[in-house]
Amino acid sequence: MSFSNNTDVLWQQIRAEALAPLEQEPLLTPLMLSAIVDRHSLPEALAHRLAHRLAAADFPAAPLLDLFSRLLTDHPDIVGALASDINAVLERDPAVHQASEVLLYMKGVHALTTHRFAHALWKQRRHHLARYLQHRSSEVFQTDIHPAACLGCGIFVDHATGVVIGETAVIEDDVTLLHSVTLGGTGAHTGDRHPKVRRGAFIGADAKLLGNIEIGEAARIGAGSVVLTEIPPHATAVGIPAKIVSRDTGDTPHHSGR
Distance (Å, rounded) from C-alpha 225 to C-alpha 243? Predict the structure, then answer.
């Protein structure tokens, strides 16, 4: 499998991949044409795909497409983040083989990009519109990410269903989250009250991280764990409440949830 962080190269790869189903699966021809083949760039394809996935009777695709296109023009970093997120899926999920699959179907990437749009609006104090995108992402992609949460790049949200990320949460680059992960508060505090997940951490399915705690770089949290205290870098923690069971002083590789 080959992929690139260069968005132009990645876009050409996605377009080439989308041409094959035109003969193999004619039923997919309208989707491939409208979502990829008839688009001119990765930003245009991204805006088009998300606008049609998030469209609703009270907010049709056309004004959403215009909104997303303007946000992408004003915030080109969102395109770079998308490329990093697509590559994160290709690197860490052995069940996915083509970048076009990620752009078209992977709701984890769609939810992350929708959050990036909402976050840009939130910083502009367009809070109602940011909240609307959060609401639609929750309905369509089954993820609930507060628009104020700060997310890095190269994040892999596998399956995505049930993921909840609170207002003051921070997720740094190259983090992996499996389904039903919660980065929540304890209900006992206001202000800065959500977890900070550092670079390269891995959070297993159904794990609950609660409170203003730090999950260190390349730390690993086992599936179903409830984490209430700081986890140091390169440590593995499991259980309810989570306890440290091992420490790794070397590089910790990413693993898929598949």
Answer: 9
